[in-house]
Amino acid sequence: MAAINWRTIKIDLLDPESSSNFDTTSLAPSITPVSAAEVQSLSKQIKQLLRGGDAEGALRGALENAPYGGDATAKDVHLATVVEILQSIKQAEMSPMLERIYGSEGGTETLDVLMKYLYKGMSHSSQPSSASRGPISPQPTGFSQIHSRGGGEGGGQAMSVLLSWHEKLVEIAGAGSIVRVMTDRRTV
Known about the structure:
Number of helices: 7
Low-confidence stretches: 130-134, 144-152
Strand order of the largest sheet: 1-2
Mean pLDDT: 85
Number of strands: 2
Helix content: 40-55%
């Protein structure tokens, strides 16, 4: 009689209802591809709204048309557009605008997309660009400073704006927005 080690048999593979036999591709939402040219065209239309004085319309347009299926270039172009819109809105207008968006149909999803852009903007402004990198300079503290604080020229101002928006957004949409953004598989 052959000695079979019953502990090494994966019983879950034999059960058709087992989670190991589940197709995980069905968990990811279907995303339609978007070209960089389409994103640039959309960016021009949104900037036209912004120049026309409709900052809320520009923000809604940018958030409702997030290029989930775009390549990295398209996503960076759209991120720059969203950050430009956010920087053009006065701090006194933030809360009323966010409340109007939150109260509208699909407002929660729209604010979740804004939260995604805030986090992506924070991560981009904290990384130094390849052009701004200089030699590593040792500091008296013993740490080496690779780039200036704030990620380069204007990085501190952009970070301040993004943090202000984040504060207002959490006040209105709640901490659940952060959790939904962290668990969503779609990236901006």
